[in-house]
Amino acid sequence: MTTAAPAPVPAAGGGRDLPHPAPEEIRLESVLHALSDPMRLRIVRELAVEGDELSCSQFALPVTKSTSTHHFRVLREAGVIHQVYRGTAKMNGLRKDDLDALFPGLLDCVLTAAHRQSLRLGDG
Amino acid sequence: MTTAAPAPVPAAGGGRDLPHPAPEEIRLESVLHALSDPMRLRIVRELAVEGDELSCSQFALPVTKSTSTHHFRVLREAGVIHQVYRGTAKMNGLRKDDLDALFPGLLDCVLTAAHRQSLRLGDG
DNA sequence: CACGTCGTACGATACTCGTCGTACTACGGG
DNA sequence: CCCGTAGTACGACGAGTATCGTACGACGTG
């Protein structure tokens, strides 16, 4: 407020910014739905392991760029991940703190379950 | 085999029996998908509280019988509930043991999360 | 400025899903 | 045997979704 930024200035290093749901707007059903897709569950698992400085293109998903964009948006709009532009790339990160505050232990349970299942099925 | 039942004999007290996935056939994605629908999440929550001797008609869901049947089937085929005929009624129960063995803590996390959210939103 | 890279937007398409209504079957009781 | 109750089967319909391709915009580097 005190800096009185004019308005059309988006931000220096960031570029344009993306709409995210506030914590109180995150719905359990949407989170579960977002996680119920194999491609998105894979994204979330990778994100949990690698930390939150991954651009969309580093995932090497077996789909086109359009479809990738779609899945990342579903995850973001459900409140599962946050996304920030950084130059030409878009960095992704899990909203672990927000999810843990809303649904304690849920994310870890799902990640553990996914890990165990991938071991069991031999695809992980 | 030794009894050599003709074939059309279904079973005595039980009536017809329904196909359930074996524990190793239960997929995390299917479980999450089954739980991501408000109506089904509601069924599962009620089942967790009331125990597993509830017939389909005791839920008083705001949908028709056809839709009810559909949701119960989705839950059964995902491995979330088991169903047994008992006379003209069909009794439902959570497959808590199987789910806990496959995905430890997941069911409790989701139930707790659902409970907290319903308190937060004032619809529970 | 020109170009390449990263990601978006939009339309198309095929599939899934939630819902309903109606017609039907299974079981139990008079 | 007839009827009522519990649930199923099937078809329909509208909404959502996962996918693609192509065209476009934003950013950084030469």
TrEMBL record, chains A, B:
Annotated ranges, domain HTH arsR-type: 20-114
InterPro entries from the UniProt entry: ArsR-like_HTH, HTH_ArsR_DNA-bd_dom, HTH_MetalResp_TranReg, WH-like_DNA-bd_sf, WH_DNA-bd_sf
Q: Which CDD domains match?
A: HTH_ARSR
User: Which Gene3D superfamilies does the UniProt entry name for this protein?
Assistant: Winged helix-like DNA-binding domain superfamily/Winged helix DNA-binding domain
Looking up PANTHER family in the UniProt record yields:
TRANSCRIPTIONAL REGULATOR, ARSR FAMILY, TRANSCRIPTIONAL REGULATORY PROTEIN
User: Keywords, A to Z?
Assistant: DNA-binding, Transcription, Transcription regulation
Quote the Pfam families the UniProt record gives.
HTH_20 (PF12840)
Map out region (Disordered) in residue numbers: 1-22
Molecular function GO labels: DNA binding; DNA-binding transcription factor activity
Keyword hit for Transcription regulation: yes
Please give the name of this protein. Answer: ArsR family transcriptional regulator
